[in-house]
Amino acid sequence: MIEIKNVSFSYKGFEEEDNEEVLKNIDLTINDNEHTCILGHNGSGKSTLAKLLVGLDFCDKGTILIDNIEINEENVYQIREKIGIVFQNPDNQFIGATVQDDIAFGLENKCVPSEDMQGIIEEYAGKVGMQEFLDKEPTRLSGGQKQRVAIAGILATNPKIMIFDEATSMLDPIGIMEVNNSIEELRKENKTIISITHDVDYALKTDRLIVLDEGAVLFDGKPRDVFKHQDRLVEIGLDIPFALKISNALQNEGLTIKNCLSMKELEEELCQ
Ligand code: ADP
């Protein structure tokens, strides 16, 4: 379980006005096995929150607890055994010369005995469908394949919590599908997943949607309930699901239909 208690944070600049709070009194509890989506305009503080969760920065006010352990500079390596992150740019996450070396790196850090390593590497490369690529150089892979290797590298170290910080935003539609399928598989393994994304249709498939606006939590609830506030979401520059846009357009043309969030719902509504 992740407990974020009254957390505030500002980046330290040279001038006083640079020290503006980018996270303001964030209070959230994220439960085990929950798939949470964090949505928000650029600059709303999503990545900063993710960085605090993995101990790349530390809060100025408040506390963050992972499994009842408060994150601080002393225990950050212990925390990182529980929580892994996949970033936006797949090119910045490789250390190894081959896919195999790259997955091995995390295992070496965890002091996994060398005789166990090969089996673990093959298992996790297999989980993301990359077992055929173990001898390949990461630079020669497609964006989606790179992100899948990054996921395998983190999974091999077996963290309970995984954060995907816009992990599909630089990928083509096939890459997005590949990575989303890998995330879907993780859900079957009782992982706690936090997805930071701009993709509102993806957000609909998660258990919980948190909307950040200017460093504060604006909405927190089931995605269906959050999208009831569609006017406010549009006001702060966010997108709404495609089916909801069509529902709105048809209502504006005088058709009496309910607000639909998925194309399947819209189809059923129109058939009726
Ligand atoms: P998001 O992920 O929602 O786009 P960020 O967490 O990246 O938002 O940014 C929140 C705010 O913090 C923005 O105003 C951004 O300019 C600022 N910021 C982000 N990273 C840094 C940094 N390393 N130094 C100074 N300011 C930063």
Give an overview of the whole structure:
The protein is an alpha/beta fold. It is 37% helix and 22% strand. Strands 6-7-8-3-9-10 form a six-stranded mixed β-sheet, sandwiched between helices. The mean pLDDT is 91.
Short description:
The protein has 272 residues and is of the alpha/beta class. It contains 11 helices and 10 strands. Helix content is 37%, strand content 22%.
Strand order of the largest sheet: 6-7-8-3-9-10
Radius of gyration over C-alpha positions, nearest whole angstrom: 20 Å
Number of helices: 11
Strand content: 15-25%
Largest sheet: 6 strands, mixed
Q: What is the distance, rounded to the nearest whole angstrom, between the alpha carbons of the first and last residues?
A: 43 Å
Report the uncertain regions. none
Q: Which percent range fits the helix content?
A: 25-40%
Mean pLDDT over the residues: 91
Identify every distinct bound molecule in the structure, by name, code or SMILES: adenosine-5'-diphosphate
Structural class: alpha/beta
Categorize the overall geometry: globular
For the secondary structure, the number of strands is 10
Oligomer: single chain
